[in-house]
Specification:
The chain is mostly beta strands and 127 residues long.
Length: 127
């Protein structure tokens, strides 16, 4: 059974950091474009960051550039989202997603081209 499992969410103060792992089971992440999406209450789900399997290229939404970093550890079959300098507007449920390796990071993040979703993890940025 193919599964993506996110963890690492929680409550953090503004300016703080969190790292979200996304672990895959039932399939190998090497062959997939992986992305992180988020959905805040009353808003549409948006692509935050995506990373390709073919050349390691990445995409970041303008709102997180310079603060978030996506990376993959194929040996651990895990993708990470490092979030620094967190702001209250980063509060959302964060979802990990996978798409076939031919999917570009732009197609995945901008047009939500996704084959598999994780269950999500809540991130709350508040003092």
């Amino acid at each position: 059974q193919l599964q993506l499992v996110e963890s690492g969410g929680g409550l953090v103060q503004p300016g703080g950091s969190l790292r979200l792992p996304c672990a895959a089971s039932g399939f190998t992440l090497d062959y997939y474009t992986i992305g992180w999406f988020r959905q805040a209450p009353g808003k549409e789900r948006e692509g935050v960051s995506c990373i390709s399997s073919s050349d390691g290229s990445t995409y970041y939404a303008d709102s997180v550039k310079g603060r978030f970093t996506i990376s993959r550890d194929n040996a651990k079959n895990t993708v990470y989202l490092q979030m620094n300098s967190l702001k209250p507007e980063d509060t959302a449920v964060y979802y990990c997603a996978a798409a076939t390796w031919t999917t570009t990071v732009q197609a995945m993040c901008l047009f939500t081209t996704v084959d598999y979703w994780g269950q999500g993890t809540q991130v709350t940025v508040s003092s």
